[in-house]
Design brief:
5 helices, 3-stranded antiparallel β-sheet, globular, alpha+beta
């Protein structure tokens, strides 16, 4: 358990401060809150439904076949990553997942013509295993 304080140093500052024991006062927890434990769910770690859609504004720079899904609606980005090499789609995937820096807004954005979303964002049902043989790998107990 000595490594737990060291692991906290890897967390973002607000979360680290919240979890650090020295920042808690006896009255912070409230009545009965001692039995509750925080759960942090991080979308995109491996079980979320990250989807993309290519609009007419998308201009593939790698190979013309990268635009094959243009105008065909939303498709899953993590459905089957083994298909990437089988269909030589790795470069397309890398390009479509790239971010572009916008100096005006001082922010990063998707490439023009690439839209992304997390299906069912904000609810536990948004996390499920892509592997039907092992549904327990993606928070199945939490979802139940």
């Amino acid at each position: 358990m000595a490594s737990i304080p060291l692991l906290r140093l890897l967390l973002p500052l607000p979360l680290r401060e919240h979890l650090w024991p020295s920042h808690h006062r006896p009255n912070d927890a409230g009545v009965g809150a001692g039995d509750l434990h925080l759960i942090f769910v991080v979308p995109g770690v491996g079980c979320s439904n990250l989807e993309a859609r290519l609009t007419e504004a998308y201009r593939p720079s790698v190979q013309p076949s990268c635009g094959a899904l243009k105008g065909k609606g939303w498709f899953g980005l993590w459905d089957n990553s083994s298909d990437l090499s089988t269909y030589h789609y790795g470069d397309c995937f890398k390009e479509q997942m790239s971010l572009v820096y916008d100096p005006v807004s001082n922010d990063y954005r998707n490439l023009p013509g690439v839209e992304t979303r997390v299906a069912n964002f904000g609810i536990a049902r948004g996390f499920h295993s892509k592997n039907t043989l092992h549904p327990e790998r993606c928070l199945a107990k939490l979802i139940e």
